[in-house]
Design brief:
This protein has a single domain, classed as TIM Barrel (Alpha-Beta Barrel), CATH 3.20.20.70. The chain is built from eleven helices and eight strands. It has an eight-stranded parallel barrel with strand order 1-2-3-4-5-6-7-8, surrounded by seven helices. Bound molecules: erythose-4-phosphate. Erythose-4-phosphate (E4P) binds next to helix 7. It catalyses: D-sedoheptulose 7-phosphate + D-glyceraldehyde 3-phosphate = D-erythrose 4-phosphate + beta-D-fructose 6-phosphate. It is an enzyme of class 2 (transferase). Pathway: Carbohydrate degradation; pentose phosphate pathway; D-glyceraldehyde 3-phosphate and beta-D-fructose 6-phosphate from D-ribose 5-phosphate and D-xylulose 5-phosphate (non-oxidative stage): step 2/3.
Length: 218
């Protein structure tokens, strides 16, 4: 399973990269705004800065919603750096844009996926990744993980190569459950990734080892 971090915060990206388990980064317009990154030149520069920090894929989202605008913006983003994956929203124009990019071997991440039908359509159009938002489904009392299961089954039935990028991951158990289902990638906050390392018995056991070592080596 690939681990992506879902942030535009360079310090957090660096911390995750230094852990040695990071495979990529996802961003979105809200995450860029949260970091105060505004204006076209600053936004483009920030994507390049992220690419220079990590080795893997970096999803950069288009802000246009019409086909022509998405194509223009997506081409510009793709030219920025070979690690860039163009993030396109799940709309009918978005599907056409994904097909356009797929025909030209430009990689895409179809975002805002909330149903298996949307994921099927994106795979048919040739999306590199689909991003089902599991946390936001949980927020409205729907089973986000069930959507991952449905997409996994459909993609396996037909051998679609589109990767399931479980998005809107909110906590560590989301990561574990996505891994059990067979999501190809997960993207979440640094805290959810760091949470994988934690167990109280590990802390207790380590404290005991240290104390016993110190007793015998005074
Ligand atoms: C996906 O790529 C999105 O950036 C993200 O996972 C959305 O997560 P949120 O629901 O926590 O905003």
């Amino acid at each position: 399973m690939k681990f992506f971090i879902d942030t535009a915060n360079l310090a957090q990206i660096k911390e995750a990269q230094e852990l040695g388990v990071l495979d990529g980064v996802t961003t979105n317009p809200s995450l860029m705004a949260k970091e105060g990154i505004t204006g076209k030149n600053n936004i483009l520069k920030h994507y390049v800065d992220i690419c220079n920090l990590v080795e893997g894929d970096v999803s950069a989202e288009v802000n246009a919603v019409d086909l022509e605008g998405m194509i223009k913006e997506g081409e510009e983003l793709a030219e920025l750096h070979p690690q860039i994956v163009v993030k396109i929203p799940m709309t009918l124009d978005g599907i056409k844009a994904i097909k356009y990019f797929s025909d030209r071997e430009i990689r895409t991440n179809c975002t805002l996926i909330f149903s298996a039908g949307q994921a099927l359509l994106a795979a048919k159009a040739g999306a590199t990744y689909v991003s089902p938002f599991i946390g936001r489904l949980d927020d409205i009392s729907t089973d986000g993980l069930n959507l991952i299961e449905e997409i996994r089954e459909i993609y396996d039935n037909y051998g679609y190569e589109t990767e399931i990028l479980a998005a809107s991951v909110r906590h560590t158990m989301h990561i574990i459950n996505c891994a059990k289902i067979g999501a190809d990638v997960m993207t979440g906050p640094l805290s959810a990734i760091l949470g994988l390392a934690k167990h109280p018995l590990t802390d207790i056991g380590l404290a005991q080892f240290i104390a016993d070592f110190e007793k015998g080596n005074k």
